[in-house]
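[retry 2/3] Integrase catalytic domain-containing protein: previous attempt timed out, resubmitting with same input.
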Amino acid sequence: MTLPLNSTVSSVLTNQPRLPKLTLESFSGKDISSFPSFWARFKSAVHENSSLNDVDKSSYLKSVVPSDAELAIRGLTLTSKNYA
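[retry 2/3] Integrase catalytic domain-containing protein: success.
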């Protein structure tokens, strides 16, 4: 998954270095030992990204959790409250 264009645009406008597009790895839920590294990357790129609202963060989360992990959040609607 690639972060939205507005992240690239905002870095240009603030004269920050242009970094390559970030691809998030998915987390299937099958190997729980891979969760800490998944969460560290997701947290840094999405969860703590103040330019994203909670609905967008929820969308990103849903897009990177296939199979078993997706089943756990499938019924949640895309709302700010449900992201938290």
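[retry 2/3] Integrase catalytic domain-containing protein: The mean pLDDT is 82.
[retry 2/3] clearing retry counter.
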